[in-house]
Amino acid sequence: MKNYQIKGEDGKMYWVHRNIAVASFIFKQIVDEEGVHFSILANKRGSGTPDNQSKWNCPCGYLDYDETLAEAASREILEECGLKIDPEILDPFFINDDPKAHMQNVTVRHFAILNPKYDNVTIGNGIGGEEDEVDDIAWIPVEKVDDYEWAYGHDKIIKALMK
User: Fold this and answer.
1) Going by DSSP bridges, is the β-strand pair 60-62/91-96 parallel, antiparallel, or unpaired?
2) Measured between alpha carbons, how far is residue 1 from residues 9, 97, 106 in Å?
3) Mean pLDDT of 28-43
4) How far apart are CA 116 and CA 53, in angstroms?
């Protein structure tokens, strides 16, 4: 049996565990004279992030103590993009618990489509809500996803969801 405790520099024993990450794929439906189009909510990673600086991703982060997965996803959307989303509209659609995955995180992905009433929604102040962690935020038209460099394979996930 593996030992899941390590001894810290302070001499105390600590449990080793895996983190739970959430990622949200929030689409906005746009209806115009040409038909129905979709944009995806994304942010550009800033210099204060531990990896993938200057790449785009959908809002993501970690589960905090005493919150549900949907509450964590909603909080991360607000923190990174300034957009308040009711956790009730976020549907989980994928769980990755592969220990070989990114830093052994367990990742839960959420999905939502905002209807046209959200056309007038503005996102934060255009630079994201977390200092040094978000350089930019945008509604990216799904047909232009390939024009951006993405972190965590989020571009592939967006394309798969649009099928």
Assistant:
1) unpaired
2) 24, 20, 21
3) 90
4) 32
